[in-house]
Amino acid sequence: MESERKFVLGGSKYDQAKFSGRFFHFLNVIDPRTLFTSNKKLEEAVLLLEQYKLGTIPTNTTDDDLWSAQKIKQAIIHPDTGKKIPMPFRMSGFVPFGSPIVVGLLLPNQTLLTTTFWQWLNQSHNACVNYCNRNASQKTTTQDIALGYFGAVSSAVGIALGLNILLKNSKGLNPATLKLIQRFIPFPAVATASVCNVVLMRHTELSTGIEVCDEDGNVIGVSKIAAKKALQETAATRAFLPAPILLIPPICMSILERKQWFKRFPKFHLPAQVFFATASFGLALPLAIALFPQISHIPTSQLEEEIQNKSSKATLFYNKGL
Length: 322
Hints:
This protein is mainly alpha-helical. It has helices spanning 19-29, 39-54, 63-76, 94-106, 112-132, 142-168, 175-183, 186-201, 204-208, 224-240, 242-256, 260-263, 269-289, 305-310, and strands at residues 210-213, 219-223, 295-299, 315-319. 61% of the residues lie in helices and 6% in strands.
């Protein structure tokens, strides 16, 4: 594991320049144990961080105490609004509250109605998580939220239903092969919907641009080129995220279902499905988010001419968003 660092307010104890550091950082972010934090513990964490700002922390306070306090606050309190994020929509709640939906998406022998329901529920949950963890310092209109939500739902349901209908009308496929292919239908539907969601929600950035800064955090200008790169990176993350979640469980289950000992215990099928879905979910989320640094860099020479004229730095930085 990456070595832990000296406490930095608002920073990370893992090296964000490395993939492994970002992976361990986001593994820490989605830790579901913070869901059980009491109000008293939260108040103590907030107070300790305030004392750190003022330089009045107790003398026996360690870096581990400060990192723990920051982890609790960041998991529960929205950084822009200062309000509590509803438990099902916290990043730490994404896996425990999202796993039952993944299990539902992967259930075999689904009808058109159940396929529609699970795809709708998945995209509705994703939309709530995205909204509750949004950058509230940047205005997001109701129209953008609605466009992203309905675009994601319609694309997910449309692709899933279309592939199911296509398979049912296919000739020459034996039942075993048909069942196997049906297990993988949720992946293209969810991956496409996730990309549609981020593109529709953030399409205005392509015309307005996003801020680019130097290494000291000084804003140099607003760049449409950086916005395009940020959107591409975020879309790639969203497309990758469902892959382990929706591909690993079907592969594992198809292998198990060929085993004679597993066939003798049909009651174990659903628990096995739940286990593989939850384990894949817990691994996939930090892996996907860690693909690109949260604060990405871009050569100044690739940016607009007016930005190049404002800065002598070879590289500038931007926040790609989640």
